[in-house]
Amino acid sequence: MIKIKNVSKYFNTKAALKQVNLEIFDGETLAIIGGSGSGKSTLLRLMIGLIQPSEGEIWIDEDEISKMSEEDLTRVRLKMGMVFQYSALFDSMSVGDNVAFGLVEHTDLPKDKINSIVKEKLHQVGLEGVENLMPNELSGGMKKRVSLARAIAINPQIIFYDEPSSGLDPITTRTIDELIISTQKSLRVTSVVVTHDMASACRIADRIAMVYKGELIALDTVENFRKINDPRVQDFFKSLVTQ
Ligand code: ADP
Hints:
The protein is 39% helix and 25% strand. The strands form 2 sheets. It has a 6-stranded mixed β-sheet with strand order 6-7-8-3-9-10, sandwiched between helices. A 4-stranded antiparallel β-sheet has the order 2-1-4-5, covered by helices on one side. α3 (95-106) runs parallel beside α5 and α4 crosses α5. It has helices at 40-47, 70-77, 95-106, 111-124, 140-152, 170-187, 198-204, 222-225, 231-241; strands spanning 2-11, 14-24, 29-33, 55-60, 63-64, 80-83, 158-162, 190-194, 207-212, 215-221. A hairpin with a 2-residue loop joins β9 and β10 (215-221). By secondary structure, it is of the alpha/beta class. It contains 9 helices and 10 strands. It binds adenosine-5'-diphosphate. Adenosine-5'-diphosphate is lined by residues 11, 16, 34, 36-42. Residues 11, 16, 34, 36-42 line the site of adenosine-5'-diphosphate.
């Protein structure tokens, strides 16, 4: 589904990512973990085509997106749903309009059809009758749900989550983790989750990739990941225990 081939990204002369190779399979959930400043967000922004690599290629299915025009990229982005850090809802729009946003922008569907899709998607994330509320009337967990409903409104094949547990308490984090799992199962999407929360990564992912100072230093199934003997991986686990 996604292939990252020999990708490096420099900001001025500083390498944020170095020679990263990563293949993300159709239908899997991959968690990308790493400390602050390790390059996780850069990797995510490259995959959604927000920034271009300095070297290397990024493939989404049959498309190499790193050198695409904005118009072609828009077509590829319709395969992607994004759940941003802190939900990133449009504050001046109602919940319903937030969820409808991609459908209004990218389809010619009539308003009543859009309304029924919005209702259905909100239902899928466990919300009912919230269309007319404004984002500032919602709790952090509800905002995440709305953000996910907006992401799945266009029936994406891939969902990207950027730090889905940021700003949430541990119990809400668990319910959002469960929602990520159930969404993956019901829609059979490929999910890419950027997180610094190892416990959450272990709950939701099939495989975990670890980025350290711009390098992809470990990639394995959740079960095998804990056994990796690299001190940088082990230190990451230890730092979480003492946090
Ligand atoms: P993470 O998401 O793991 O916290 P980032 O991908 O945001 O890490 O950052 C990786 C490195 O790249 C950091 O050293 C950061 O300062 C640098 N970086 C990220 N984005 C930019 C940018 N737009 N301009 C300059 N440096 C950047």
